[in-house]
Amino acid sequence: MLKKLTYIFVCSISVLSACAEQEPALELFLNSDITRNSNITLLVKNITTDKVIASYRPNVVVPPASTMKLLTTATALELYGGNYRFETYLESDGELKDGELKGNLYVRGTGDPTLGSQKVGNQMFLYKWAQQMVRLGIKKISGSVVADMSFFDGEATNPGWIWEDIGNYYAPGIFSIAYMDNTMNIQLRSAQIGSVAEVVKTIPDIPEVSFENHIRCTEIQYDGAYVHGMPYNNTRYLVGSVPSNRGIFGVKGDIPNPGLLLARHFTQALRQAGIEVTGDAGFIAEPQVNVNGQTVERDVLYTHLSEPLREIVKETNMNSNNLYAEQLFRFLGSRQNTPATINNSVQVIQHFWKQRKVDISTCIIQDGCGLSPIDGMSAEIYVRLLTYMLRSANAEDFIASLPVAGESGTLTGFCLKTPLQHNLKAKSGTTSKVKSYAGYINAQNGDTWAFAIIINNPNGKVKQAQAEIQRFLNRLYKEN
Q1: Which one of 213, 225, 254, 310 has the lowest number of neighbouring Cβ atoms within 10 Å?
Q2: Domain boundaries in the chain?
Q3: What is the third-level CATH fold of 87-154+258-307?
């Protein structure tokens, strides 16, 4: 019994000594009122010297929120390079004779997130497409414009997402044709407190969409409304509240079928260009096959190229664009098989990093953007990833995609007017119960640090957790 007590006493002294040896910055961080009982994984490493500067449970896997986008974008850059461009094909299954195309004109997408996007790309692309058809001598299409969305499978909503998110602009359906950021603006008329806000119209106009509206006008001063609905389903449930007496107030939700909307708008563009189109716009979600089960062949009339992948990755990380991240994530699965699936994407990511001897075996990948609470990452995995990418041929594009503290993207207000302003580049992540950062720090002596901090369930608001992280990193920076 005495030996056992002695062992416990010695171990206790060892633990106390280890705590005493912790950097003051780390002690203060872990013992703050906000973080004391939180689930935290943390690692700061000087990757110039390979020295660990601060560490706390670095291998614990927790939901990371939007820092998950780092894994998605790094994989995409490594597999395809910054110059890669998505291809969207205009195809026909009919014969062109004497100016008449006897058959349908198909728009076959492969996952480009930028068609009609307000973030990246040219919004006048439909006019360009129509002019290309004019140059081919097409004056009449005896058929329809059909959106072919068969490059991705039909699981347009990630099963790991929660109902509160699905149908909102930040959690839209994921299709191989994305259009107008898969986002519609629902225009509401805000009136007196207690009234139900009236739905006036949607931008863009989608006539078949209907609403079950329960949005109340209240005393709040922000957008407290949520949109619920599933891909391909034209009913959207509106709940929550908006500020009262504001006149027209916009709430953003997803477009139920972006491919069909693109086909309609392309039909209009063709008619405006003087091309007669006899049929109504349509869409297909499954590959077209003939009676023998073989894929129906079509003639490619034109190939549209997206902006380079580096620009798409930059928008994804700089502004934490969930749609862009999910389109990239699903596209990665096409390297294994088509139609691309979520499972394919997961396997491609895991296999790639295993080949590169970057151990991500303990991470849990449910989506590409970090919206799913099932996702799991550790600080150690992020630091491994960041270390690899700093030495990659794609390092310049990857680092350029990260917000700079106090300067750009989602870090505009982070570490503002502190020593880390301009010296920290990172991806941030935020949900109601998660605050995370992962990226690089330029040390005072010129070395480079890689760091990752994920806080789950802080004892307070995530804004308070953000302030604690900011204080910790600045203290650590000054101490080293």
Answers
A1: 213
A2: 24-81+311-479, 87-154+258-307, 180-254
A3: D-tyrosyl-trna(Tyr) Deacylase; Chain: A; (3.50.80)
Surface-to-core class of residue 14, CB atoms within 10 Å of its CB (0-12 exposed, 13-18 middle, 19+ buried): exposed
Strands 87-92 and 299-305: antiparallel
| Residue 104 token pair | 């349908």
pTM: 0.92
Which regions in the chain score pLDDT beneath 70?
A: 1-23, 291-293
Tens digits of residue pLDDT in 26-76 = 999 999 999 999 999 999 999 999 999 999 999 999 999 999 999 999 999
3-state secondary structure the chain: CHHHHHHHHHHHHHHHHHHHCCCHHHHHHHCCCCCCCCEEEEEEEECCCCEEEEEECCCCCECCHHHHHHHHHHHHHHHHCCCCCCEEEEEECCEEECCEEECCEEEECCCCCCCCCCCCCCCCHHHHHHHHHHHCCCCEECCCEEEECCCECCCCCCCCCCCCCCCECCCCCCCCCCCHHHEEEEEEEECCCCCECEEEEEECCCCCCEEEECCEEECCCCCEEEEECCCCCCEEEEEEEEECCCEEEEEEEECCCHHHHHHHHHHHHHHHCCCEECCCCEEECCCCECCCCCECCCEEEEEEECCCHHHHHHHHHHCCCHHHHHHHHHHHHHHCCCCECHHHHHHHHHHHHHHCCCCCCCCECCCCCCCCCCCEECHHHHHHHHHHHHCCCCHHHHHHCCCECCCCHHHCCCCCCCCCCCCEEEEEEECCCEEEEEEEEECCCCCEEEEEEEEECCCCCHHHHHHHHHHHHHHHHHHC
Contact 62, 364 (CB under 8 A): no
Q: What is the separation, in whole angstroms, between the first and last Cα of the chain?
A: 45
| CATH number belonging to the domain at 24-81+311-479, selected among 3.40.50.300, 3.40.50.2300, 3.40.710.10, 3.20.20.190 | 3.40.710.10
Angstrom distance (rounded) from CA 390 to CA 439: 10
Question: For the segment 218-264, what is each residue's pLDDT rounded down to a tens digit?
Answer: 999 888 899 999 999 999 999 999 999 989 999 999 999 999 999 99
